[in-house]
Amino acid sequence: MPTPNIVVSPAPTEVLVGVANSSNHSVEDDDRSARNEVLLEYGRSAEVWVYQTREGHIKWVVEGGRLTTLQQKVQHQFQNVRIRVRQCLPEDKSALFKDRAAQALFHALQEATEAEALWHFGEVEREIQREAQRFARYRYLLYGSIVAGSIMAGGLVIALAVSAGWITAPDTVRTVVLAAVTGAAGAWASVLQRVWTLTLPADETPRELVLQGATRIIVGAIFSLAALAAIKAGWLFPNAATNQWSLGLVTFVAGFSERLVPDLVARLELQAAAGGSANTK
After folding, report:
1. At what angle do helices 206-232 and 114-163 cross, to 10 degrees?
2. Which of 1, 117, 128, 255 is most solvent-facing, going by the fewest CB within 10 Å?
3. What is the separation, in whole angstroms, between the first and last Cα of the chain?
4. In terms of DSSP bridges, do strands 38-44 and 16-20 run parallel, antiparallel, or are they unpaired?
5. Which among 9, 31, 10 has a CA at the least distance from the CA of 21?
6. Burial track 141-162 (b if 16+ CB lie within 10 A, e otherwise)
7. What DSSP assignment string belongs to 196-265?
8. Can you give the C-alpha Rg of the chain in angstroms?
9. How many other CB atoms sit within 10 Å of the CB of residue 257?
């Protein structure tokens, strides 16, 4: 019987087995011996056979006594593609690309040169990249929307409670709530505007994408509070301090824009540095 050859998938629930036939075996011999375990064939020729077992394992068989150097490189590339699929795509999508990668493996194992062999994985990898990017953007938008909705809902509850007389809040608290809500809304509008053109690291884990989406909204709320402080201090649109509509517009823009508050901070740093230099003379 042929012996398994060095290939074990990193996934704990999935085994990938490569078999190099001994000289007195053929792909047809293994076809007869493994017929009962085959669930799906990805490809079969006189030299190569790639199939999925009923247990969900992917196996491949090649003619000859041992794996060639090129076939080992093909095997390594196949494993890399499978790892990327598991890391970057949800389970319902990964099954499709698992099959695509196995089909590419079948064709690659029959090629005579490394360039020709690895070419078969190229289109699969590009499709994985595109799908992973769409999935990353979806996660980014989803969790950014959840955080933005939570902040805006909290602000609405506070506003309704104050209007109904259930709680008493000084004007300062109302202004801070207004700024935080409009800042979160501005950040959310920014996410909505550019999410489908945004380039996100497609190899990041879902947890990292959740953190990125949530952080963008929180940063927008913080920027809006910084803009509120600048307005109250007279450093930024001082006339907006007495008009809630103007105040809400400025804090919305502060949450929407990623440059307004950083530019303001940079300008204040220059003023502080200039003031410090003047005092030392």
Report:
1. 40
2. 1
3. 90
4. unpaired
5. 31
6. bebbbebbeebbeebeebeeee
7. TT----TTS-HHHHHHHHHHHHHHHHHHHHHHHHHHHTTSS-GGGGG-HHHHHHHHHHHHH-SSHHHHHH
8. 30
9. 17
The β-bridge partners of 43 are 50
* 66 exposure class (CB count in 10 Å sphere: 0-12, 13-18, 19+): exposed
As a whole number of angstroms, the distance between CA 159 and CA 38 comes to 64
- For residue 48, what are the CA distances in angstroms to 45, 60, 193, 212? 5, 7, 49, 45
Sign of CA dihedral 79, 100, 105, 117: negative
Those residues whose C-beta lies under 8 Å from the C-beta of residue 100, and which sit 6 or more positions away, are 124, 127
Cα gap 257→224, rounded to integer Å: 10
Give one word for 14, left, alpha or beta, with left for phi > 0 and alpha for psi -120 to 50: beta
Q: What helix, strand, coil percent values describe the chain, rounded to 5?
A: 65, 10, 25
Task: Give 221-239 pLDDT, tens digit per residue.
Answer: 999 999 999 888 888 888 8
* DSSP secondary structure code for residue 151 in this structure: H
Is-contact 224 179, C-beta < 8 A? yes
- Tell me the three state secondary structure of residue 173: helix
Q: What is the pLDDT of residue 6?
A: 32
Question: What does the block give as tokens for 182?
Answer: 């409009």
Report field, pTM of the whole predicted structure over 0.70: no
Q: What is the pLDDT of residues 111-164, one digit of tens each?
A: 999 999 999 999 889 888 888 888 888 888 888 899 999 999 998 888 888 877
Q: How confident is the model at residue 4 (pLDDT cuts 50, 70, 90)?
A: very low
Residue 21 has pLDDT above 50, yes or no: no
Confidence of residue 104 (pLDDT cuts 50, 70, 90): very high
Q: What counts of helices (H) and strands (E) characterise the chain?
A: 8, 4
